Amino acid sequence: MIEMNVAGIALDAATRLPIVLLKDASERRALPIWIGQTEARAILTALESQKTPRPMTHDLMVSCMDQWDIDLERVVIHSLQDNTFYAVLTLQQGDSKKEVDARPSDAIALALRMDSPIWVLEEVVADASIPVDKEADLAEKEEFHEFIDNIRPEDFIQSRGGSEPSAESS
């Protein structure tokens, strides 16, 4: 799994739908997830640490979880099927741990409010992410090809220190 952070909310130029953008720690891969207007507002409210006069739905969830001593251990975005992302909340209360199905947008809004990590399975990142730093990706690819081009069979032989093994006498 790869830990991701919320980079922000953007608008899709073609559809005018909001996109939550997650980035990995190296900021070399970004994962765009299309969401609704309400979900974008909930995420932006948390990103900007805005206080609303009355609790929003995600604030209400946080209050309930606090009252019942439930921690949001982490959010995991685990799959992408038919252009739909799937996530689970890992909740912990004392020694009990449960996973609860959630929309990624709701999971992200809760994670931001509860300062919980957001993880994405490698397969999802590989399938749906976009490169942010194409030059770094290209340099890494060239370095790997250079390594492959210059490797010799002798490089795989483990050298042994010291002398040849001696024959034991009985």
Automatic annotation (TrEMBL):
Segments forming domain BFN: 1-132
PROSITE patterns: BFN (PS51658)
Annotated transmembrane regions: none
InterPro entries in the cross-refs: BFN_sf (IPR036104), Bi_nuclease_dom (IPR003729)
Listed GO MF terms: nuclease activity
Domain of life, source organism: Bacteria
PANTHER family referenced in this protein's UniProt entry, alphabetically: VON HIPPEL-LINDAU DISEASE TUMOR SUPPRESSOR (PTHR15160:SF1), VON HIPPEL-LINDAU PROTEIN (PTHR15160)
Protein name in UniProt: BFN domain-containing protein
Lineage: Bacteria, Bacillati, Cyanobacteriota, Cyanophyceae, Acaryochloridales
